[in-house]
UniProtKB/TrEMBL annotation:
Reactions catalysed: L-homoserine + NAD(+) = L-aspartate 4-semialdehyde + NADH + H(+)
Binding site for L-homoserine: 188
Record-annotated active site: 203
The protein's name: Homoserine dehydrogenase
Family per record: Belongs to the homoserine dehydrogenase family.
Organism: Pseudomonas duriflava
Main EC class the enzyme belongs to: oxidoreductase
UniProt GO BP: methionine biosynthetic process; threonine biosynthetic process
Length: 434
């Protein structure tokens, strides 16, 4: 049988890794796919001296690749929203299947892309867009298809996880670790997408859509970064038996879908709380399977290339199948997607860690407890430290039971209005992931 011809757009880290894996494991991949997979052409803006492409034809025009009638599958690895979207839509219009690692593209434009792909009867595969080499999209779409998914929680940005690990293990400040992450290549010169949760929100949007059968709705995801976290909060969390992780949480409730990325206290004995460095992990809770944990490298040349090539194998296997009987892009049949709303953060429910800086006066704790009690907020535990030498303020750390965000926001406003409370109250959400 003739080999399937592939065009790779972008020969950076992931593109070169994909080319190398396809070349090195060609025989094994052909055995799995049922026919050979051959890179027929590469489009790149800059040469990559780390990748020996041999005699493979190379062009600087990505659209020439998409318009090449000999190519069956386009692998989009250039990233971004604009050129990548035009490239993918044109490939689909030309009747070509697409494999992409572009989480931003799928999260923001996926609904449009999948609609066009259905119209043209082609496949758009995107396993590599979430958590690198961890096959969590396939697990949600296929392995857990019997389940009603209750929630998904993930450490899905390695840069943020590296920073928080260094802060906890070595007591280093956020700014210091960020500089090292940039020097090591974990963080970009502009680290906003990583440290503010935007990258994780792209990925969580995709996971939530597949888990709950809802359209992609990145614009409704709540994001909160980690730049404001201090080593003091990391240490207090540890003393209380928790670890702070930059967690993405998607939960199905009767009222709607929670879709949020923020710093989160997790009990230290949970497996996911012990995922350190640049590693990723995703927990999925289903009504039949219970909780499952997917762990591995969330980025990098060959881990991500592993997912890209796995998608290529899947596409090759499915190329001759009836389009109506393929696994749907978002796990549910297009006409069966739910209109269950994504909730604003004020309507989400969580437990909370609160740190209050107060003057060392009698009765302050009683005032704090009264404000929380008036709003139906139950305190699980309190830790009060000695007055700090530099300012004489007493740190009070409270853990609450689960409560609506709007109620805790009202309580914090009232706490900050107390004359004995100095500065803003620190709020970090708590998830037990039972």
């Amino acid at each position: 049988m003739k080999p399937v011809k592939v065009g790779i757009c972008g020969l950076g880290t992931v593109g070169s890794g994909t080319f190398n894996v396809l070349k090195r494991n060609a025989e094994e991949i052909a055995r799995r796919a049922g026919r050979g997979i051959e890179v027929a052409q590469i489009a790149q803006r800059r040469s990559n001296p780390k990748c020996d492409t041999g005699t493979t034809p190379i062009t600087s025009d990505v659209f020439a690749l998409v318009d090449n009638p000999d190519i069956d599958i386009i692998v989009e690895l250039i990233g971004g929203y604009t050129v990548a979207r035009e490239l993918v839509m044109r490939a689909i219009e030309n009747g070509k299947h697409v494999v992409t690692a572009n989480k931003a593209l799928i999260a923001v434009h996926g609904n449009e892309i999948f609609a066009k792909a259905r119209e043209k009867g082609v496949i758009v595969a995107f396993e590599a867009s979430v958590a690198g080499g961890i096959p969590v999209i396939k697990a949600l779409r296929e392995g857990l298809a019997a389940n009603r998914i209750n929630w998904v929680a993930g450490i899905i940005n390695g840069t943020g996880n590296f920073i928080l690990t260094e802060m906890r293990e070595k007591g280093r400040a956020f700014e210091d670790v960020l500089k090292e992450a940039q020097a090591l290549g974990y963080a970009e010169a502009d680290p906003t997408f990583d440290v503010e949760g935007i990258d994780a929100a792209h990925k969580l949007t995709i996971l939530a859509s597949i888990a709950f059968g809802i359209p992609l709705q990145f614009d409704k995801a709540y994001t909160e970064g980690i730049a404001q976290l201090t080593t003091a909060d990391v240490g207090y969390a540890e003393a209380l038996g928790y670890r702070i992780k930059h967690l993405g949480v998607a939960r199905s409730t009767a009222q709607g879908i929670e879709l949020r990325v923020h710093p989160t206290l997790i009990p230290a004995d949970r497996l996911i709380a012990n995922v350190n460095g640049v590693m990723n992990a995703v927990m999925v809770n289903g009504d039949a399977a219970g909780s499952t944990l997917f762990y591995g490298a969330g980025a990098g040349m060959e881990p991500t290339a592993s997912a890209v090539v796995a998608d290529l194998v899947d596409v090759v296997r499915a190329m001759t199948s009836d389009p109506e009987n393929r696994v749907p892009h978002l796990a549910f049949q297009p006409d069966a997607l739910s209109d269950h709303p994504v909730l604003p953060i004020e309507a989400c429910e969580s437990a909370y860690y609160l740190r209050i800086q107060a003057k060392d006066h009698p009765g302050v704790l009683a005032q704090v407890a009264s404000i929380l009690s008036e709003r139906g907020i139950n305190i699980e535990s309190i830790m009060q430290k000695e007055a700090e030498e530099h300012d004489g303020l007493v740190p009070m750390i409270l853990l609450t039971h689960r409560v609506l965000e709007q109620h805790i926001s009202g309580a914090i406003e009232a706490l900050e209005a107390l004359s004995d409370v100095i500065g803003p109250v620190v709020r970090i959400r708590v998830e037990h992931l039972n």
